[in-house]
Here is the input.
Amino acid sequence: MAAISRDEVAHLARLARIEMTDSELDHLSDEMEVILGAVARVQEVAGAEVPPTSHPLDMKNVYRPDVVVPSLTNAQALSGAPAQEEERFKVPQILGEE
Amino acid sequence: MTLNYSETIEKYEPTLGLEVHVELNTKSKMFCGCATEFGASPNTQTCPVCLGLPGSLPAVNEKAIESSILIGLALNCSIAPFSRFARKNYFYPDMPKNFQTSQYDEPICVNGYLDVTIDTDEGPKVYRIEIERVHMEEDTGKSLHVGGATGRIHGAEYSLLDYNRAGIPLVEIVTKMIPGTDKYAPEVAKAYVSELRDILRSLGVSDVKMEQGSLRCDANVSLSPRGSGTLGTRSETKNVNSLRSVERAVRGEMIRQANLLEEGGRVIQETRHFQEETGLTRSGRSKETAEDYRYFPEPDLVPVAPAAEWIETLRASLPEKPSTLRKRIQESWGVPDKEMAAMVNADLLDTVVETVDLGADPTKARSWWLGEISRIANESDVTPQSLITPASVAEVIALIAAGELTDKLARQVVEGVIKGEGSPREVIEKRGLKVVSDDSALMAAIEAAIASQPDTAERIRGGNIPAAGALIGAVMKATGGQADAAKVRELLLKHLGQG
Ligand SMILES: [Zn+2]
Here is the structure.
């Protein structure tokens, strides 16, 4: 059984707001199948004695003090934005959501 | 046919669920050192971390962890010995990273409760609101929708984003389902948010200003036919930004759902938006399911495992509970339960305390705020606190005590202050509202009253003291209410040989 169906890929594309053609969906389903297969092999290697982790280093409680450091200027913050207006990032209309 | 609220309650039982978001008042953001100050010009409090630029790495604000633990402890929660952050993935421009760093299946605090007291038909009743979880996350940026008539998304041509707020520490407090509140559901919801706000304020962890959005409530409401034992489909109302709105939103949503069900319709699980002007909710975006958010542990942050000693130190530092403080105030002022509840319900306790701290008598302060000022506030649909300051009220009360104002004149002074005519002193000056305390002027009015009602005067001379009321009334009328009634009475009785 496939690890990921074509429908699931289409669903993910919709969530990511990426428009995809039928052939792109076919292609991507195959590719993701391969990737998930590789990840599944890693799963097999991890035995019961290896606890699941979300970080490569066995660390916890890494904090920074509540101290303000200088931010970017407005111009710096917006320097990479494709569009801007009124000192803000300008983005296309967002349909069907708020 | 249309069901009203009491018909809704006859047929249906509500179940509530409340999610409160509170912005912490840390100096810097949750995962970066950007300032959190409210009202800065757009995009001047951002950095590569909170803008989600490639290669940036977040680091957790220790103070935010401390505040979250304090909140959990104050809400009688267990503090998790191990918790983690997760990515909540969604594609929406209010988060430039395309995910919100939050906590998912491993929140920092779980299983608490908060007791709230409601004034019911059978007297004060305590409702225990169970808390499911308290978790940490970050706030989103602010969108401005341009084009279209309403400033809403529909019809907007494009949106403008300010990321100053993105990354400000946010704590979400989620209740378990709250059954059994019946017709008091709107009041219980409001009392819960109010009590929670007082606790958060006493902890000093947030500004808790609902109007500025540092405390926000989402209200989940569902109805089930009375006695059916089933659970209805819930809606989630967002944008509830005042205590009064919490009550109105729950009530409005109960009525809407009941009417929908009555017409054979079906409640759909959706996000609705509260509209302050109408008190109604309107449908919002259909929510992605939890699965669609594809939560996974945040690989850039390490787990949070607070030491037991730290938790105990924080527990020992908890301030007096607002409910205990209220009990103390109630006892020292000698206020009956019902009136205390009325004051808390009207969100006037802090205001009355402030007025008393400025020297006013507690009973008088209470009566002004809950009486005259609340009445005027209700007429224009605003809060009493927005009309007049505790200092002005304390001043008016002091002027009455000094005999410079009668109650009647004081009401005119308060009216003047509310209309923006200045301080109480200035209003008295401008309107010429001075008590007629000149004895000779009063005596002239008293003699005129006796002359016009000789029979009454005779009865008083004969020892019928209660008859004096008619003459005192006549004097008060003649002086336009600017006389001190007690003084008039004293002079009148003396004049008629009864003093
Ligand atoms: Zn930042």
Notes: The two ends of chain A are 38 Å apart (CA to CA). The CA atoms of residues 5 and 73 of chain A lie 46 Å apart. The helical segments of chain A are 6-15, 22-45, 74-78. The beta strands of chain A are 63-64, 84-85, 88-92.
